TrEMBL record:
Any one Gene Ontology BP term: DNA repair
Species classification: Bacteria, Bacillati, Actinomycetota, Actinomycetes, Geodermatophilales
Originating species: Geodermatophilus obscurus
Cofactor(s), names only, from the UniProt record: Mg(2+)
GO terms assigned for molecular function: 8-oxo-7,8-dihydrodeoxyguanosine triphosphate pyrophosphatase activity; 8-oxo-7,8-dihydroguanosine triphosphate pyrophosphatase activity; 8-oxo-dGDP phosphatase activity; 8-oxo-GDP phosphatase activity; metal ion binding
Catalytic activity: 8-oxo-dGTP + H2O = 8-oxo-dGMP + diphosphate + H(+)
Metal-binding among keywords: yes
Signal peptide limits: none
Annotated keywords: DNA damage, DNA repair, DNA replication, Hydrolase, Magnesium, Metal-binding, Mutator protein
Domain named Nudix hydrolase: residues: 116-249
Annotated family: Belongs to the Nudix hydrolase family.
Protein name: 8-oxo-dGTP diphosphatase
EC number, UniProt record: 3.6.1.55
Enzyme superclass (EC): hydrolase
């Protein structure tokens, strides 16, 4: 059986809250495989009478938050005909009811928890057309990451919409007006952001268009427009690297 929930929280928060709440089954499950913050797989059994339950979750970042896709499969260990009857008469309904109650609580807790974690947004500002596109990259001027390249952006303020934060940061840092066009992806940040625990914040990046102004480095050491070939040659903040294929795709798509 499949379930899909949209949680108004970034990946790490959605994943960590899901782990803390566990699953709605009245017996313990064992971890089979977990990859924070993208997936986990737990199973119970085979137990008495070869009963078995497998519960897999996949967490995907989207512009609106995290989509959690869950798959619950079970085997009662009964002969096929009997098992089919039991499934139809009782089990499917019971599983659906347990999951629905669990997921409603989960979504609410994750949304609340997200308010306590400072998140970072970044803009992949693109210029040009199919004949040749470039993205604006910025070199940090101070702090522990000084000298490394990043996407212009910064921390989302409490209660602020993520895309609004992106527009505000680009105005403050570059003196330009941008419009977010497409969500590109999200990665966990290893370091502490604004005093938060390391690994709880994420960087969420949007492709953006320039609608007014020419970028000026108000806070960065340097700014550069680079094409797809130049992207990989820069000394990026390590956390940003998994986002580069999506940016490259943006620059090379027809
Ligand atoms: N803007 C940006 N920050 C990134 C990227 N990758 C990455 O790890 N970070 C980290 C560095 C910082 O710890 C944090 C962003 O903080 P910031 O100092 O730029 O934020 P801000 O503009 O709101 O700064 P401030 O007003 O609090 O000084 O995210 C990236 O590509 N862009």
């Amino acid at each position: 059986m499949s379930f899909t929930t949209v949680v108004a929280a970034p990946l790490t928060v959605a994943f960590d809250v899901a782990r803390a709440l566990g699953r709605p089954w009245p017996f313990p499950l064992e971890e089979v495989e977990s990859v924070r913050p993208v997936s986990d797989l737990y199973a119970a059994g085979p137990g008495r009478g070869r009963r078995r339950l497998v519960h897999a979750r996949r967490f995907t970042a989207t512009a609106d938050g995290t989509v959690v896709d869950e798959q619950v499969d079970w085997d009662t260990g009964l002969p096929r005909l009997l098992a089919g009857l039991l499934d139809r008469a009782v089990l499917r309904r019971r599983v659906r009811r347990s999951m629905r109650r669990h997921l409603d609580g989960y979504a609410a807790v994750a949304e609340l928890r997200a308010r306590d974690v400072v998140q970072v947004v970044g803009a992949a500002i693109v210029r040009g057309d199919a004949a040749g596109r470039e993205v604006l990259v910025a070199q940090r001027g101070s702090g522990p990451l000084a000298g490394l390249w990043e996407f212009p952006g910064g921390k989302v303020e409490p209660g602020e919409d993520h895309e609004a934060a992106l527009v505000r940061e680009c105005t403050e840092e570059l003196g330009v007006t941008v419009v977010p066009r497409e969500f590109l992806g999200e990665v966990p940040l290893d370091g502490a952001v604004a005093g938060g625990a390391p690994g709880t914040s994420t960087l969420r990046v949007w492709a953006a268009g320039l609608v007014a102004g020419e970028p000026v480095a108000h806070e960065h050491r340097d700014l550069r427009w680079v094409g797809a070939a130049g992207l990989g040659t820069l000394d990026w903040i390590a956390a940003d690297r998994p986002l580069l294929p999506a940016v490259r795709d943006l620059l090379t798509r027809p």
